[in-house]
Amino acid sequence: MSKFILALSFICTTFFVHSKQITVSVLTELNIEVANVVIYLTPKNPTPSNTSNEIAIMDQVNTQFLPHILAIQKDTQVRFPNSDSIKHHVYSFSTANTFELQLYKELHADPLLFSKLGYVELGCNIHDWMLGYIFVVDTPYFGKTDNKGNLTFDLPEGEYQLDIWHPRIQDDFSSLSKQLTLPGESEIKIILESPLLPDVNQYEEESGEFSDYE
Amino acid sequence: MKKNRANFLIMNKTLKWKIAIHSKTLPLFFLSLLTLSVDGLAVEVKGLVQLNYVKADEQSSWFDKDTGILAYSKDSANVQQAFIELSDNFSNGLSYAVVANYYQLGEQNVGISQAQVSYKPLSSNKLRWRGRVGFFYPKLSLENVDTGWLSPFTYTQSAVNSWVGEELRAVGLELTLYSPGRTRNSPVSWEFHGSLFKANDPLGTLISWRGFAMHDRQSLNNERVPFAPYPSVIQQDRIFHPNYVEPFHELDGNIGFYLGTHIEYYKQSTLRYYYYDNQANPLAVSQERLYAWRTKFHSLALQHKFDGNTRVLGQWLSGSSVMGERFVYIDFDAWYVMLSHKHKAHRISLRFDKFKVREDDIFPWDPNNSDGQGVTMAWRYDLDKNWQIGVEQHINWNSADIRATLSQDIEIDQQQSLAVLQYRW
Q: Which listed CATH number (3.90.1720, 2.40.160, 2.130.10, 3.90.1070) goes with B51-73+122-424?
């Protein structure tokens, strides 16, 4: 029992001592926060792969992909349910994963495995305005910025490469990459040089309500 | 021998003219497609039934061979709409859709209103194409956007699209070149449509003699639409045409065409322009004395959504139609503007229609001038995803010179009230 308590306290001490919190913010050249940016930190000393067995979800709701951008770790399976009462025909021509899925209402397609890194652009061959993304990273430390353009991580001490991705960012992504050593800075700001591409998300706000050829 | 050959040629020509859309060909074709698809993937079945109680106008309808421009003649309970749509999509980009309807009103109660096979290859290009063949509507209406070409706004449709539903359908091929805005990071999407079609030669008959009407009765394949027995139309010493039209006939072998373009700003604002010309030979006449009417028109439809709940839409139609050696020649114009607002499960729509037909032909004893205007207001409420209730009030003021030939008043006011229960699945 005493050995167990000793081990537990060692683990806790290790965790609390070595875990560091950092907050990453993404801002445009006009200092406007950018939401939904994928941020991922890849450790310099690779950690053992600990991909969870959870299945990620890319749903279709009101003829939109939900979420618009889904970030996942490599070798994660993604399920494509269809919450609409109409069918969808989801496809991707991206090199990271090329596929097509017929999504009938009330029928469930098998989940797909995403093993290649990079972004996968999704479309629907029935509803041309639908557009979604899956971004595949090779680290367990990733997430998306909130509406204020912020994302907070709890990370073990060590060296990391910080990268970001978003479909509207025109800057060269490698130029936005940063090397980090933890402990170190706890707040990191990434300011984009080029303006964002136009926000075509308005397509989703005004998507078709009626089932025929609107 | 020569005589036999000549007879054969005449028969052959008659057969060719009479092909139209053979009543049995379409159902058989799509039944075989359905059988094929059942082996492959699940067929998607959608359906809708609307039951109504109508408080009708005193003036009887063209369905009762009278001169009213509203569909119902008596206060009554009716099956207003009933249809099943079968469709399926295949991974190679092929899909099909068939709409089979039941109507209580009219001479043909069961039939097909749309049947098409489409091909839309998967593409990541900014410029894409797709095509369809079959028996279909050009996509010129922004009003008829619900399944089965119904309007989700009012029950009694605009004069423009009531006419499209009763007399217009393409039996042919449509090719579309299009570019979705999202693929170009642009708010603007566009489509360009071109079609070659047959079997719509009598188009224009109803608006020339009866005038524009307002209803939701779509004509079915091989359908016959009646109208009043105007003496100038039916008498042997006059035009000598039956008091009905079968709109989906091929009478002269000519191929018609239409061209259309759609431009969208996001999904917020939409413009659709079409030019339609059935290229009919107005001298062609069938054995039952149906004429080919050379009918051509422009259609411009616009819609703007102020937000997700409120929209304004409208359409303007302008064209001409001629039959025989200018026995009948008309210019027609019709337009509507509609405001529709959705609040939770409620939708309220208000539409104003105006329409006019003016003649310029050789027979003064066959007066074809008609015009009118109408207001339609509907409230529809979704009880759940299957059930909907609604009420509608319609009123119009219309005039048709040809009523004088039946000793009726040229000008009449009409009104109609509807209460509708709808179930869809």
A: 2.40.160
